[in-house]
Write a structure and sequence with these properties.
mainly alpha; Arc Repressor Mutant, subunit A; 2 domains; 10 helices; transmembrane; RNA_pol_sigma_r3/r4-like; RNA_pol_sigma70_r4_t2; RNA polymerase sigma-70 factor; membrane
Length: 197
């Protein structure tokens, strides 16, 4: 939902208006929660992150009048908080297992796809850097859910060759994500889920 009077509300928030803040909160919280869920996969943690984002907005309300696009600003904050959460989770095994478990249970989401365009383009860019055959193998195994044997038969190569392609591609993907986002190697699986969900 686009607020016609968003600029006015931001000016009011700058002046400490709780009413204006509540209006923005009620307008954006639902969409923001769905966006964060695409990253952290756990309802409770997604809600906490959204609350933290809005708390940060309120605490820095004096500068809200300078924000040109509140929605863009909101999603950048949410993405940063989500990545920080994943970095923290990468060193806590119990939290890591919880996220992985929920990630496997979720079905693919179709709403608000544009919000993840930048992230998906990043993953596509990484996969675009690997050899064509490796990418073909990776997509058959990940996107189509083929077994190594099925992929080998479809491409006319050995199962061992498929395995080598997958090992190299997964390693490249994990290291790229770790380098750019600081996320633990064990979270590369979650990253790959975003591409095919």
């Amino acid at each position: 939902m686009i607020l016609i009077n968003e600029r006015t509300l931001l000016l009011e928030i700058t002046n400490g208006s709780e009413r204006a803040f509540s209006t923005l909160y009620e307008t954006y919280f639902g969409d923001l929660h769905r966006f964060v869920m695409r990253f952290v996969k756990v309802e409770e943690h997604a809600e906490d992150i959204c609350q933290e984002v809005f708390i940060k907005i309120w605490n820095s309300r004096e500068s809200m009048s300078e924000v040109q696009s509140f929605k863009a600003y909101l999603y950048v904050l949410a993405k940063n908080h989500s990545f920080n959460f994943l970095k923290h989770a990468s060193v806590e095994r119990a939290l890591q297992d919880e996220i992985l478990s929920h990630a496997l249970q979720l079905t693919s989401a179709t709403e608000e796809d544009f919000q993840n365009a930048e992230y998906l383009m990043y993953i596509e860019k990484i996969l675009g850097q690997i050899p064509d055959r490796s990418r073909e193998v990776y997509e058959l195994c990940k996107e189509n859910g083929n077994s190594y044997q099925m992929t080998a038969e479809q491409l006319g190569i050995s199962r061992n060759a498929v395995k080598k392609h997958m090992v190299r591609t997964n390693k490249f993907l994990r290291l790229s994500v770790l380098k750019d986002f600081g996320i633990s190697l064990s979270f590369a699986y979650i990253i790959s889920l975003f591409l095919y969900n």
